Amino acid sequence: MSSEDSDDIVLPKDDEELHTRRDKYKVAKMLGKGGYGAVYEVIRVSDNEHFAIKCEKATAVKKVLLMDSNVMQGAKQISSKHFCQVLDRAHVRERFNFIVMKLIGKNLWDLRVDRQDARFTLNTALKSANQCLIAIEQLHRFGYLHRDIKPGNFAAGRKESHEHHIIFMLDFGLCREFIKRDENKDIRAMRASAPFRGTTRYAPLSAMLQKDQSRKDDIEGWLYMVVEWTSGGLPWRKLKATDREKVLQYKQDIRAKPDYLDDFFYNCPKREFKRIMDYIDTLDYYQVPDYKFVHFCVQHAEKANNCKETDPLDWDPDTPYNGPKETPGDGVPITYERLQKLDIDQTIEASKRKGSVGKQPKKGKKAQTPKDEEKDKK
């Protein structure tokens, strides 16, 4: 039996009903498939609401769903707008495990290639660049590297849920936790060498040279992605994923040869993008990138090219842009102490919304965090 035949038996079928402790979901259609399993659109039986489920074969050696859940839990801690949340989970014995998430729209690769000239307008390119940069900084803030930054791993929300101006980060199967909270360390020591992780087209130099990746490398991958959707393609786009040495040579040449650099930044705000690339190349494994500087360069490109704050996105041309108004944080990983403070801050904010602000805990009593409240309920 082939692996495809095996998948057909193991993975969900159209119209199959899946049960969790909370709800029932009916499988509508497959949205995508990979080595780990597949993603499906499902309908909640109780109210006909549409969701997505990500399935992982029960026999999978690498547990991708666990990493997805950990990352999305981290995003929840900082109330990020750019990550889905795990809404439900369950398993079908001896077949697959699955998590339920919000359904989102097309990924940025598909949105770009849908366009006649296969590139975004500069306005959309830069607005999308900023949202993706903020998602990357937030991922780093709760201690993870993505290691596979590419347009297919970012998607716009759905118009039906009024989120089509928000960009979501997806697919955390290659993520790596780069801090060791349990040992009270800021960052893991750099390994002497590391296996290649990522997608050849967008992979940073470190990955191509089989070096350990760090925060700067996610930003380097982000720059290749942004250049591609701004210009319509990368100079090495016709090379295969297996042509890693040739792609590496291209990436080194754009840094050393002016004519290669001009080709790379075709149709892009060259001055600002080159400043970003030059800055990335100054960073080492342990340094925290200055996300605000990168954000400033993108903003400068917007102003220099008369991109207005409300100029519409290419996939919603008739509506003024109303995406999140954000700037990146400092990227410093959240320690247990910072998480505890975050819990307390969120409790205070919740109290304000309920009108109970001003009530202080009695002397000698600690302020309750959401975790403490959960214990009390039990």
From TrEMBL:
Residues 369-378 have a biased composition (Basic and acidic residues). Gene3D superfamilies: Transferase(Phosphotransferase) domain 1. Residues 353-368 have a biased composition (Basic residues). It comes from the Eukaryota. Keywords: ATP-binding, Nucleotide-binding. InterPro entries: CK1_Ser-Thr_kinase, Kinase-like_dom_sf, Prot_kinase_dom, Protein_kinase_ATP_BS. Residues 25-294 form the Protein kinase domain. This is Protein kinase domain-containing protein. GO terms for molecular function: ATP binding; protein kinase activity. PANTHER family: CASEIN KINASE-RELATED. It holds the Pfam family Pkinase. It comes from Caenorhabditis auriculariae. ATP binds at residue 63. Signal peptide: none annotated. Residues 308-333, 345-378 are annotated as: Disordered. PROSITE patterns: PROTEIN_KINASE_ATP (PS00107), PROTEIN_KINASE_DOM (PS50011).
